[in-house]
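Shall we go through a protein fold together, starting from nothing but its sequence? Please make up or recall a protein chain and show it to me in full. Go ahead whenever you are ready, and we will take it from there.
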Amino acid sequence: MALPKANRLKSRKDFQAVFREGIRRHGSYLTLRALKPLCSSKPSLDTATQTTQIIDSAHLVSTRIGISISTKVSKRAVVRNRIKRQINAALHNLLPKLSPGWRLVVIVKPTAAESKCVSPQFLQELEQLLAQAEVFDGNS
């Protein structure tokens, strides 16, 4: 199950913003980078139109998620793609529980391929990391 297009983090600019300004939470198989929704009352001149658009429609902006998996995890694309599909399935299950407006990047550690990690383990670890980052509805 792939994530809906509205929930995918695609652009390089978005990934860089999450890596530069987001908070980090570490697990044994995954690292979560999370960037809170824009809610500043004083937007800068460069992003004035974008920020006001996000503030005005805060309830309409969906949480966007990206997955980063390096060749350090495995040299074989088959293995990397299998892990990515498992994480996508876990995120698809957690999507209704997430607060809107967050930008998230899930980074896979090399230990995920070494230990033959399976979907329930990814789901459990993702839940823990999202709870630590307070991304679930009602926590922020």
